[in-house]
Amino acid sequence: MSPMRPLELWAGPECTVNRVGDAYQDQLLFSGFDRRLDDLDRLAGTGAKRLRFPLLWERTSPDLGVFDWRWSDERVVRMRELGLGFIAGLVHHGSGPRHTSLLDPQFAPKLAAYARAVAERYPDIDAYTPVNEPLTTARFSGLYGLWYPHHRDDKSFVRALLNQIRATVLAMRAVREVNPQAQLIQTDDLGRIESSPRLRYQAEFENLRRWLTFDLLAGRVDAQHPLRAYLRNHGASEQELQELVEHPCPPDVVGINCYVTSERFLDERVWLYPPDLLGGNGRDKYVDVELARVHGRAIGGFAARLREASERYGLPVAITEAHLGCTRDEQLRWLHQAWQAAEEVRSEGHDIRAVTAWAAFGTYDWDSLLTRSIGTYEPGLWDVSTGEPRPTALAALARQLAHGETPQSPVLGAPGWWQRELRLAYPAHGEIETMPVTGRPLLITGATGTLGQAFSRFCDLRGLSYRLLSRADMDIADPASVAAALERWQPWAVINTAGFVRVDDAEHDKRQWRENVAGPVLLAQECARRGVRLMTFSSDLVFDGSKTSPYVESDTPAPLNAYGRAKLEAETRIEEHAPDALLIRTAAFFGPWDRHNFVSQALETLRRGEPWRAAEDQCVSPTYVPDLAQAALDLLVDGEHGLWHLTNRGEVSWARFAQMAAEAASLDMRLVESSYGTALGHVAPRPRYSALGSERHFLMPKLEDALCRYLGDCHNMAGDWPLGRQEPPEREAA
After folding, report:
1. Are 502 and 449 within 8 A, CB to CB?
2. Which of 300, 412, 472, 645 has its CA 20 to 30 A from that of 192?
3. Are 573 and 517 in contact (CB under 8 A)?
């Protein structure tokens, strides 16, 4: 691999097989990568040159000396056909099969024996990562007690780390006896630690420690190394350390795994933070928080980590993981900034080989550091929540980067949340630096409505430039007004939330046709003519309720009332004039900012001790507005089009929904009075059953989960920021 070759795209599925107690969690099983051979074709289609290929010990040889190569045989053949290069990963945040563990004295020779078997089976594999992130895994398993064997002391941390390092050395030695040209692509997280002045000693220790994986392999932990004494004091023998010095196994490529939350800040001013963040090292009590949440300086991390790794070792460097568990636009910015940083540092003369689009098929339960198996999913280049991979905007970006094309996503002009002021959750340390949100805007109609207000809030949180328009700014049913607004603001997309929403009044009020049909259709025509994307909304009331299972996108509509007929007419004509438009059917809004929705009114009534009447014979799919806005924005950024159903997962009668809300709020459920819908004074007929399902996705959380979040968000709506990997506050003493 020549340093003058263009920067390469590498890729990989999240493939952790970690153990918590006696239970193993297998990310390949969760994402379906273990079942879909054609995922390799998807990865090759991005232009990726190499795949971090999971040839995992626990999966291939769970029993000592017994191997099942069927899964890997099939995929190795396909990768050869596709021309995909290999980086074989043997242990990924694991502790090995049940017959060993990170503290087992035989862990290293056992892994070496497996590595030799892999090399003999596949002698043309020319790159290996025998153990992914040895330092990180040792911390989580030996120091923090999160993963097996769940120890919480420095001695266990040191032993787990050295066992993994020795396993890497012995594994590469075994592999190279079969294939002398095999390269070691060693990975670890190099997140930097900063601190308040009092805790500088702890930060300095941790900033030295973050290099230990590479220092040990490169033979640098000699008698002068500042952490040699620490290692010796916590169980490392002089002989094993000296052996690494005298017989080093330096990486052929230093692989750094970059996460915004790996950059940490230590602060002894504990009164500034929530009590549950309190930790310490036995000498001082302090909190350990994400640097981005407290430091005034906007962080990036990629360029600095690449430069320091290159300068420290004089070896080729690659970003071997670049993933962010967040909204789609933030994921795009993170990957794009990684690529830009790699190109920048390459231009300075550093040998930067690749950026890896990691978690290609998403991750499960990393929000709990894999300590719980509840299925919390974060999409990657593909969204596999339905089992069939759906390419997201990340897949398009990866493909553009790999082919040297200019990225096309309109959201890339804005800074990431880690560069905007909203990142600061605590009093800022140092002068605050921020970057402005720029770029072509979104236009959001319906400035006074629930949905329009929700989209504006989430555009603020997601760094999306937008204009929230009232009818005075753009009357969607007036051709001149629409043309003038589109010309003035030059948007990349329009989100239409305007409309006539009073279902009973729609039976006799002709204005509803203007707002629900003429306006959206005019928008569709003008957007199509100008190449502007359109997202607009329809309703579950396009159905007549004759089904007894949730309606999906391909079901035939048959509305019972004027409102439903108008919505269906708008759908038909929009699809005719703007086939690239995104049409979203949804239902039964409730949210924390609207005091007039069904749940808010029901709970206010029940808190007064008064009865609340609701229909027991009308079944719907209630939709939490924040979830709807987030999912819809993801689809818009992904470039999706056509008809989609978006509601929270679940179906319930209005009466049962009121009971669920009462129970969640600890109010008297008995005050909810069940009634027939016809007795509630409705003018417009309603379908008895209009629950929505989907044959395209499972994008939104369950109704029960949404209802719990609604109660909390009513008090303090603070944005939904999945922060990726977060470390426990308790750390070892320096």
Report:
1. no
2. 412
3. yes
- Give how many domains the chain has, as a whole number: 2
Tell me if the pTM is above 0.90. Answer: yes
Q: How far apart are CA 141 and CA 149, in angstroms?
A: 6
pLDDT at 433: 83
Q: One-letter amino acid identity for 239?
A: Q
Beta-bridge partner residues of 352? 317
Residue 62: which domain range? 9-263+299-408
The confidence score (pLDDT) of residue 727 equals: 35
CB of 328 within 8 A of CB of 264? Answer: no
Cα dist. 76→51, 61, 62, 69, 88 in Å?
11, 17, 20, 10, 10
Is residue 214 located within the same domain as residue 107?
A: yes
- The answer to whether 538 and 585 are in contact (CB under 8 A) is yes
Q: Identify the CATH number of the domain in which residue 495 sits.
A: 3.40.50.720
At 717 the pLDDT is 46
Give pLDDT tens digits for 558-575.
999 999 999 999 999 999
Token pair belonging to 66 = 């017994």
pLDDT digits (tens, 9 = 90+) for 71-124: 999 999 999 999 999 999 999 999 999 999 999 999 999 999 999 999 999 999
Per-position b or e across 473-490, b if 16+ CB within 10 A of its CB: bbbbbbeebbeebbeebe
> Dihedral (C-alpha) 640, 644, 650, 652: value to the nearest 10 degrees?
150
Which run of H or E residues covers position 567? helix 562-577
SS3 586: strand
- How high does pLDDT run on average in the chain? 92
Q: Is the peptide bond before 149 cis (omega within 30 degrees of 0)?
A: yes
Within a domain: 269 = no
Distance CA 264, CA 303 (A): 17
pLDDT at site 298: 75
Do 702 and 599 have their domain in common?
yes
- The structure tokens 């071997």 sit at 320
15-50 residues labelled b (16+ CB within 10 A) or e (exposed): bbbbbbeeebbbbbebbbbbebeebbebbbebbbbb
Which tens digits make up the pLDDT trace of 217-234? Answer: 999 999 999 999 999 999
Same domain, 553 and 645: yes
> Domain containing 158 — which CATH number?
3.20.20.80
Instruction: Work out the burial of residue 110: count CB atoms within 10 Å of its CB; fewer than 13 is exposed, 13-18 middle, 19 or more buried.
Output: buried
On the CB side of 176, CA atoms within 13 Å amount to 13
At residue 720, the pLDDT reads 34
Q: How far apart are CA 729 and CA 154, in angstroms?
A: 15
Q: Tell me: pLDDT of 160 over 80.
A: yes
Type of residue numbered 658:
A
Measured CA to CA, the distance from residue 58 to residue 430 in angstroms comes to 47
Do 459 and 362 share a structural domain? no
Residues 582, 441 contacting (CB under 8 angstroms): no
The string of pLDDT tens digits covering residues 684-732 is 999 999 999 999 887 888 999 999 999 988 866 433 323 233 333 333 3
pLDDT in tens, 521-537: 999 999 999 999 999 99
The reply to whether 387 and 447 lie within a common domain is: no
What's the burial of 608, exposed, middle or buried (CB within 10 Å: 0-12/13-18/19+)? Answer: exposed
The number of CA neighbours under 13 Å toward the Cβ of 238 is 1
Quickly tell me which residue has 């999706």 as its tokens. 640
The answer on pLDDT for 653 being more than 60 is: yes
